[in-house]
Each structure stands twice: as structure tokens, then as C-alpha cells.
Amino acid sequence: MSLRDLLSPFYVWQRAFEKPYTTKRPTLDRPGAPAYRGFHINITETCVGCGSCHTICQNHAIDMVAVDEYVGRDGDSGLRPRFDYGRCCWCGLCVDICTAGSLRMSNEYAWISEDPGDFHFTAGIDDKPWQENALGYRRAEGYHLYPPKRITMPMLPVEESVNTFDEVVRGYDKEQAKKEADRCVECGICVATCPAHMDVPDYIHSIRDGDYEKGLQLMYRTNPFPATCGRICTRRCESVCPVGILGEPVAIRWLKRFIVDQVDKKDYPRILNEPIGESDFKVAIIGAGPGGLSAAYYLRQQGHAVTVYESRASAGGMLRYGVPSYRLPDVELDKDIEHILAIGVDIKYDTEIGRDISFETLLEDNDAIFMSTGLSVPSSMRIHGEDHPRVLSGLQVLADVASGRDPGIGKKIAVIGGGNVAMDAARVSRRLGADVTLLYRRRISDMPADDEEIDESQAEGVVIVQQAIPVEVLDADGTERVCIKWGEAKMVDDPKGGRPRPVLQEDRMHTETYDCIISAIGQSSDLGYLSSEVQDQLAIEWGRFKPVEYQHTMMEKVFVGGDFANRTADAISAIEDGHHAARGINRFLNPDAFIKAEMQDE
Amino acid sequence: MNTIDEILDYAIDQEQQAADFYEEVAKNAETASMKKILLDFSEEEKHHKKILQAVKTGEHELTPQQEILDLKIADYLVEVEVSKNISYQDALIIAMKRERAAYELYTDIAARVPEGHLREVLDGLAREEEKHKLFFETEYDERILTDN
Amino acid sequence: MNEKTLNTMLEKLKQEFDISDIVEHKPRLTTFTVSKQHAETLIRELRDREAYTHLNFMTCIDYIEDGIFSLVYMLHNYGKKHSLGVHVNISRNGEEVFSIHTLWAQAWTYQRELREMYGIRFTDSPRLDEDFCLEGWDQIPPMRREFDTKKFSHERFGHREGRSSEVPREHMKVQLYPNRGGDEE
Amino acid sequence: MTSLNRHTLTGHSAALDFSQPEPVDLSSGKYVKLWQGPQHPGITGNMSLELTLEGDTIIGCKTHVGYLHRGFEKLMERRTFIQNFTVVCRIAVPEPTFNEYLYSHAVEELSGIEIPDRAVWLRTLNLELMRLASFLMWIGGQSGAFGMYTVPNWTLSHRDFVLDLFEEMTGARIYHMYIVPGGVRAGLPEGFEKRARDVMDSTEKMLGQVERVMFNNAVTKARSRGLGIIDPEMIDPYGIVGPNARACGVARDLRKDEPYLAYDQLDFDIITGHDCDAYGRAWQRLQETRQSIDLIRQCLDRMPVDGPFQADMPNVLHWKVPAGETYVKAECTRGEYGYYMVTDGSEYVRRVHVRGPSYTHAIAVMERLAVGCNIADIAGLMVSLHTYPPEIER
Q: Nearest Cβ partner of A72 from C167, C172, C185?
């Protein structure tokens, strides 16, 4: 034993004169680190109630509960997470997965209450002292628990696409689709917003499982046009997809298309194998667009004798005569239509109600009628000189091209409008070799057309002039040309609210000569086949129907749907109208069965 | 038209005439829904009339200095004919153009009278008509110029 | 360990023992399955002849669907920095297994744990039936896959009152579109 | 069969005698049974020693665990791959991040995920800070076990300074849940490096004081020299790893032997000792604590300050890891810590086995070294093996 070993320990005395390590303040006053994982905060206005926090919580500490402050609406389930601090382990996975970025943690970690119920609370709804706490854990930038970016869709390169009517969007391959399907958090919030309430999370799940036949079956439950909608759907679902709040929404439309692309048409009867019921009723359907054919598909499954009357030579309505083939190839549309017809739906082409058969006869001969004749008349601009022969309608140009006729547009043209028809007309014209200028009275951001359509149009060389209000059509030199006078608009805020309105600046006028002007500013319905008495009975307002529940009109046997009966005027809404009308017609034809069933439910 | 009351009476009468006009067109309209729209227009004119009557009794004041937004939609549209199967678009065009004409009339007269109370009343009436025009132009912008 | 030495060793072992399913997971880890009859000798040979002197661990995987337990002996060769995972498949139904408690001092502990958690018996393994982690356990051995932890906890412990959760999609359907969607036909 | 190889392998019969002690006749009155634990402060964590004494001398020791069994390996079979990462940290309470790292690493290896460079360095830093915190707690424990309570005050306060760093870096002091499959959850906060260096400087200074007070101490030496001697021949047969082995002169360290994370880019040598007793092991750990401070400084010097810290990940809500099997390991304060993972291609892991060094150190080794020990030294002996009961039970 050395002397050193005896003396050295007394060194501890030196510490007595140094600053102590301990602090005098009560420890409760010590705030957590800025990113401390303390008690939960939820910004309930931002939260969309997707329930991902509930799903990921390994402790089952989170319930999704209805709260008085929020009700379900597009993009918000109205539910909010409720925490059970008897189970929480403060891992913060709920914060990491939060699709809306609304969930975070405060750096508060001390909380005393005698009531155990206080530790079971709805963050942001039940008042808690840390709700306004600015510090605490939140998901770090660049850290994700699901891929925020979409799998890029292979597209035809612009230099090719502008020269062909071949489909621009090439579709995902299996690997890409699986990856994209993987991004879905399966909250199902999109289902409420989809007009047809398709089982979106379920068919996306089927892609992850590689079970495309199941995916197809799931889609046909609510939509007999999956090949079509997988291409041209307005995809309201994607606009509410929670994954899109902080990243890009799941490409629901492309995934739907992917499933259809995987299944051969000849396998449809085996896979879908719809049971056809027994019925003696006869139902007539006016218009073989998506609404009419959807109604036909679901009505036929009940066993009714279904006859569709179509004024044109082919079925599909606007899908065939309005949507260009580079967006929706005929063969894909036919894949949908042929299956609907294959289950025993009868169709009469080139048969116009009011000309070949009267509406009254139809009413007499059938037990119910579903009308879905859409918006087929192009709107007029009502400006001077509009009746110039070189002013064409967008609808006509599209129908001509769809039918294989030359619309004769020339080499330098102007398109007027900002909707999808205007974009279609512009892009079709580019494919026909014309230089295209598109005049729109508002800003590009105000355009009702799909953003993708706007982007692709511009990529294909369509020149968009925004805030351009046409005021007059003038004669040009020679009968093959036409002049348009337009003025620049400035956007003025509407004092009563709403979107800013364009105001013409009369000192900023332009005149330009074109080979033709394609007007595509909107459409209205053609109800000429209905007598004014019938129109009155149907209670049509502003050329549109206002059906009651189950698409029923004021006339006993008549149900309506599609563009002229809804405010959204897109294929998926028409499809749902048809499906819903089919339900309504079944209830109307078999009232006893439904009343019985409802009584049993109660 | 020299006194303010005379001017207001004229304006009130004009509103009544407009209301009568829409009622007349409504009578001939083919469908019930169009009838309803035109009768709504007529009600709107009667509402205008009430406002002017309130101005006359002093219960309401005109606002001659107010800036009213002019969307200039009516200015460049073609004249349309009144018919029994008139469309909503055309009914709106007729309404816009009538309000525009009234506005121009009052502005015109105002320019010819000396500055003073009378002129203020005329300017005020012009603003009223401009407001009515904006009402129909907004409707046109919302419902007709949808571009879809 | 270079590939050649490894292959030479494996070839040699294959000749002597009933070895199958050789998988090289990464340069430092190879696993294979050996029949129960050969396993004890093989493991001893690996320790004494091939210098796999370190027992990293010993454990068991329950392949309930195949009716087997796969015992895993992870052996390490410090010199070659290589690990060998030796799998020995036995029946789930109470098949008794040789003990390696004479080869490594900690082996009996593993075997005692495996008896408790899976119900596997190791011949002559010391203190095999002493409780390890569990005291007064009256259920089936808990690591067997058929033991349902959630059910057990539901039955054994209470629930907090007032807990219930709604599914966003169902909630929205009831609220927003009760008569629509693909369900009611 | 029981005599197999016992005498033939090395010739050192004593080291390789694994046999259980003979039961004694308690009714003879010669012996006393004494339970130490499970809450005894001289036991590192909650486990019990069932001691048989003859006078002051221990003639038999049985260990009892089970007070911390939470069935994590079972729970992990019933949770998704992302959920598990919040569970694993609890498997070794004073040193949770090794579980986070090894779990994540096993999942990444099986799913073929390469983590970005910055995540590699952040993980290395995190693990070394953990080693430092763990050693600081251990030094306090060892000193306390020999009856000196000044040193625990010093070292545990410095451990708390390291925990402050963890709190900043990870959002929590103990269960950091920072290392996640795919990378880490965040970069370093503003000013972290400076604060970390300050803590390193003051800890280094404090360690000097500890050396003077605890190691150059006649009492410590008297009580720990010759206590719990590990015969080097025991090392492989007993599976002894880490500082317990290195203190016997066995130069094995996974950071060097099978480098993981950024260890192949750090400058350090394996530290070894030659005294196989409790003092030698304590000295070994003191040096490794200093080495850890050096490695932390190297990490702070060399780590990239920007760039991604997470690999591209699938959606963790329905993450399926391909079927496979792996064993990954890392050098924790006690030696080889390992995760054996078997996956079957589903959303759940098929089997995870966690290999903690205490499994043998606290049971087989302890039961053997205790025999012949004085009852007063049993706590010091137990601590000198540096064991964590929760990793035995999982």
C-alpha cells in the first residue's frame, strides 16, 4: 500500500470549493429541450382525421373520436385523435406519420391531476395548459414515414405526342404501380369525396397484393367505367388525399387504370360474373353516355329488361365524341362499354327521342325511364360577328375528329375558353398541325381545366393568353380567315367576396387574324325532345334538372342523371347518378321489398 | 323634370315599367322554370323601386360618390330578342342591357344639369343602376361564363 | 473468412454430417440445417476442430404452420471472424433434444429459458425446470406462436372505461352518404 | 456424456468445470441462505442472488431473474416493423440506443436499405455518447459498491449532462427512439456541437479526479484487487466478451474486428489490460470511457453537417420485409450485443432474439465467481461484471 493511495482520495476536498453540479431551482421549472417529446398538441383546424396516428400507435393509445367542433366534409373525416396517457409511450410516431402535419408534441413533461380522466383527452379540443406551447417535437424536415413524392408516370415525349393521337400517358408497370400503391395510408377519406364512392383503399390494396382480379371486382361494385375513369377522371379523390397535404397525393386515377390494364377483356365475364336477377320490368334509358350506361349496368343486374336509346352511331356520349383519343383511346372505352352490353343490355343506335320515338311513347311502354342526355349544345359568346362561318365550336371539332372527319381548322387558330373542352380542342388542333393560341378571360390559375391538361397543352406548344376577353369577331381578308378583337382584363376583387372578376380594359384592345376561331366556353342541355308540358312537370331550372333523392324527378316514372342533372358535370358524377338512379328505380319498382327490408333493419 | 321629386318619380316609374316588362315576358315563357326566373327579375325591379321610394321619403340616402365595379360585360354583347323560349343567358343579357341603358340615361342628364343637389340625385340614381347592372353581370359571370 | 476456406469447410462437413439448406447471408454469416442425430457431434466438432469457440446465443423459431421448432445455435470463429448458424429442426410436440451444457457454461441458461418459453426439454440440462423469467405461469409456454398475448392481456387485465374509436371511412359514410357506395345491393 | 471434453479441450480443468455446486445441508446449522435483491442497491438492476454462506464466505450462488420480464421478443412478433423500434429501447434501460441501432440495422439489412452517410455518423455519435453515459453510471456504481459515494455524485451528474445532450439531439433523455429503420429521426440541433464539446471537456476533467479519488485509493485497491478473477481460459467457454474479456488481455472489440457504422473511419486502438480482477476491469472501463470521449470528439470533427439522414423508405404502415435471416452485432459497454432476426416476408417479424452480454456475465460467470467471495464484496463483484438484467429477460 503506497502513501499516494492513502492521500490521493483526500483530493475530494478540492471539489468542496467548486460550483456544485446541482441546481437550486425546483426541477419542475426546468423546461424540456426545444425538440422534447412531451405532451401532444393537435392543430385541429389542420387535422383531417385520417387516423394514421391511430394506425401507427403500437400502444393503442389513440382513438379517433367524433367531436362537436368538426363534421365530416370533403377531405376531413371530422374525427380527431383522443389520447390515453395511460398507454402512451411518447415515441412520437403519431407525429411522424401525421399526414396533415397537425400533430406535434410540446416540450412540457410535467402535469399533475387528481382525476385520471384528465389523462384521457382530445388534443386541441380539450383545454390543456400546453396547447399554445411553441416548442416541442415535430417531424424533422426531410424525414418521412411514407414516400411523399409520387412515382413519375411515363409519358410520351412532347415532340412525339404533338404529332400523334396515340395515348400520351403510358401507364405504370407493375413495379411502379406497387410503389405508388404503397404510398396510400388507407384512411379512406377519398371514398366520401369520390362521387361514386369507389372502394379506393381496397383496390389500391389489391395492387400491393398483386391481386388485380380482386381489384377489378372492387371497382365494378361502384363503377362500370374503370378503364375510362382510370384515364380521364376528374379525380376529386386525389384533391382530398391526405398524402397530398404535405406531399403529392396518391395517383389514384393511374392506379385504377393500372388494374384495368392488367386484366384482359376476355377474362372479364369470368372475373366479374355478375349474377343477373329475375324481373319482369322494362326500363328505358335515354342517352348512352356514362350516366345512361352505368344505370343500365346496375339495372340489368336486377334482371330488368334494359334498352338504351342513343342518337349517335356509337355509345359513349362525350367520352367518345368529346374526349380525344390521346387521352382516352377508343379501345379502352370499348373495353368498358362492351362489358356493360355483354351482361344483356340492349342498345338502339341512331335513335333519337322526339324524332324516331316520342318521349310519350317511351313513357307508356316502360316501367321506368332514366334520362341522361348531358350538355350537348355549345354555349354562345353572344358577341358581335359570332355567326362568322370561321367560328367553330369546340364540341364540333372534337366530334369531327372522333368520327374521323376533317374539321378543317387551318394552320393558325385561336381557341376561346379555359375548360377541358378548350384544352382538348387546342391539343387536338396542335395534332392537326395548327399553331394554337388560347384566349382565356381569367388567369391560368382560375381555369376550370385540369392542371395537367394546362401543363401538357403548354408543353405541346399551345400559347395561352390569360386575361383576354373577346369582344368582337370581324371579317378578315378572304372567306377562309377571321379576325378577333379582344381586350386585356385586369382582375378586380369582388367586394362581395368570391373569386376576383376580370374587368375589360378598353384602352388595351388587340386584333388578330386566324384561320378559324374555336369557341369552347361552355355547354348547355338540349331538351328539345321534351314538350314544354313535360319540361314543366320535370321542374327543370335553367336548363338543368334538380332531381330529388335517388335521382327521381317530379314525374313518377322518370329518373335523371349526368351533366344536365348535377353541378359537377364530369364522367364520374354521371356514373354515380346512373348507379344511384338504378337504386332508385329498384326501390320504385319494388317498393314492398324495400319497405320490408327497412322495417327489418329497425 | 326639374324638381328632385319629379326625377325620383320618373325613376320609380321606370323600375315599375321594368317589373311589368319581366312579368309580361314571363306570361309568354314556355316553361315554368323560365317563368320563375323572369318573375324573380320582376321582383328584383320591385325591390329597386322600393329603395327609390324610400329615398323620396328620406328614409334612404343615395350614394353618388360610391365607386361601383363595372365588369363591362353588357357593353360588348349582342342585342337579343325576347321570345317565348328565351334562355337564361339571353334573359340576363336583356336585364344587363336595360340596367346599362338606365345608368347611361341618368349619367347623361346629370352631365347637363348644374352642379348641386339635383345633380347629386341624378348621380346617385346612376350609381343605383350601375349596382343593378353589376348584380346581373356578376350572375352572368358566375353562371354563363363558366368556361367548362 | 474467405470464400474458399468456407467452402472447403462446408464440403468437409457435408461429407460427414447430414447438412442441408446452406445459405450464405453475408460474408460473415452462413447458416445451415443439420439433422438432430448429427447435430450434437457437429456442434462439438465445430467448436473443437473448426475453432467456432464462441456461442453467440442459442434460440428457437416456432414454425407452427410446419409443426416444427427450429433450434438455432449461433457459433462464432474469432480468428476467421465468421459466424455459423446451425439450425436443428424438431417436432413441436414435446420432442426431447440433446443438451450442450457441457460445451458452454451459459448453455444451460439458454436451455432453461427455452424450456420455459417454448416447452422444449433438453436431456440432462441442469436446473431445467427452475422458473427463469416467469413465476407461477399457468398458461402454455408464452413464446409459442399460438399464445395470444392480446387475448391474455384482455382476460387478465382490465380495460380503461370510455375507450372507443371510429373508422374515418365508416364514419364519413354514415354521416355523408348513407345510401350510396357499393354496399347495399 | 457429462465428462465430454471437460479435461481435454484446454487442460485447465478448473476453468472448464461447468458443474453446479453440490446442495448443502441447511439443517446442519453450518450454512446460511441469504437473498440479495431484487431491489438491493448493490445489484445492478432488478435481479436476485440466492447466496449460501459458510461464515462470511459464499459457497454457493444462484441467480434469479424475472423481475423485468416484459416479453419484448414476443411483442415484436406482433407489431409492425416501424412499431417495434419504439419497443426495443427498453430492452437495456441504461443503454437503449444499441437496441435501436441493431434492430434498425437488422431490418435494413434484410430489406436492402442503405442508410445515408450523415445517418451513419449521427448513429455513431449517438452510440458513443451512449457508451459514455453508460460507463459514467457504471463508475458511480462500482465506487458506490465499495462504499464511496462521492464518485457516484460526480459521475452521475456528468451522465446527466450527457443525457441533456440526448434530450436535445433525440427529444428524450432515456428512451431516445432516435435511430429508426432507414436512418435517424433528425439532424443535430443548433449549437449542439459546442455544448457536446463542453460536456466532453468537463467529463474528461472529472475523470481525472475520479482516477485520483477512486483508483489511487488504498481502500478501493484493497477491496478490488484479487476480487472476481476471471481465468482467461474461461473466456470462450463462458462467452465472456467486452471489457470483461479485454481486461484479461484478450484484444477483441467489434468496433475494430468487424467494424460497423463509421468506426472504420475513426482512429482508435483496442485497449487491453492484464489484471483479470475487479480492479483491472474497473481500470479497463475508465480507459474505455476516456476513449469514448475521444471518439465522440472525432465524430464531431468529421461528421457531415448536411445531407439526408434517412434513406428512401417504403410506407411504413404496410411495410413488408423480405423473408430472410440475419445476425447483427455491435460492441456495447459490456461487449457483444446482438440481434438475430428472422423474417418471413410478412408485415411482422417472425422471430427476434436479442443477445445481451449480461446473459452469461450475470448468470454463469457470476455464479462461478461468487463462490469463495466474502459476503461484503458480492456487490462490488457483481458491479465489476457490468450487467444489465433487463437484457437477460427481454
A: C172
